[in-house]
Specification:
The complex is a heterodimer of chains A (about 110) and B (about 120). Chain A has strands spanning about 1-5, 10-15, 20-25, 30-35, 45-50, 55, 60-65, 70-75, 85-90, 100, 105-110. Chain A is about 0% helix and about 60% strand. Chains A and B meet through strand 5 and strand 10 of A and strand 5, strand 9 and strand 10 of B.
């Protein structure tokens, strides 16, 4: 099975940086995804890590350590529109199913 | 590219009726589609994996006779909630995995906009 943990809520100021941590304990691992979801909308893909290290994409970066079962999503230069839920998801081996964490609600304040 | 649509976006129905939700991949083919449900402020829970031309694979605890899935073509999967009850009220989201590696970006799934079901 999969056990994925991430903080429930985080608050940050516009222009600041926020780091969302995700730890996982899984029976198999074939990649970790981060999605952004605004209230009442579908998740949108942000990043994908399958090897250890940092993946940078504009204001968003994602890090993975497979040995530690740990990932983080780094949001820089926060904007009001970044207020959303951020979902960490792990893909198992042999299929393409994703197991999602409960999501972290990020609130950006002016 | 990689757009997935869902219809309807919202539906209200009476208890005991059946509701069909469609999931379409608009600009790519998808051998595999997934159906999730999401309760308020909770994460997505995978209900079933829909495979074109074969039976769906249901997750543990999901009643296959209650949530009928049909994946009749490479661009369409349907979820029918049969004999709906108020506890079935939820946000249902589908996702699609492109069949062609040319259409895949980082092996991700593409999500539809979701269908909000309210059973009275």
């Amino acid at each position: 099975g999969q056990n994925i943990d991430q903080p429930t809520e985080m608050t940050a100021t516009e222009g600041a940086i926020v780091q969302i941590n995700c730890t996982y304990q899984t029976s198999g691992f074939n990649g970790l995804f981060w999605y952004q979801q605004h209230a009442g909308e579908a998740p949108t893909f942000l990043s994908y890590n399958v090897l250890d290290g940092l993946e940078e994409k504009g204001r968003f970066s994602s890090f993975l350590s497979r040995s530690k079962g740990y990932s983080y999503l780094l949001l820089k230069e926060l904007q009001m529109k970044d207020s959303a839920s951020y979902l960490c998801a792990v893909r198992g081996i042999g299929d393409y199913k994703l197991s999602f964490g409960a999501g972290t609600t990020v609130t950006v304040r002016a | 590219g990689a757009v997935v649509s869902q219809h309807p976006s919202r539906v209200i129905c009476k208890s005991g009726t059946s509701v069909k939700i469609e999931c379409r991949s608009l600009d790519f083919q998808a051998t595999t589609m997934f159906w999730y449900r999401q309760f308020p402020k909770k994460s997505l829970m995978l209900m079933a994996t829909s495979n074109e031309g074969s039976k769906a694979t249901y997750e543990q605890g999901v009643e296959k006779d209650k949530f009928l899935i049909n994946h009749a073509s490479l661009t369409l999967s349907t979820l029918t909630v049969t004999s709906a009850h108020p506890e079935d009220s939820s946000f249902y989201i589908c996702s699609a995995r492109p069949s062609s590696t040319r259409d895949r970006t980082k092996e991700t799934q593409y999500f539809g906009p979701g269908t909000r079901l309210l059973v009275l």
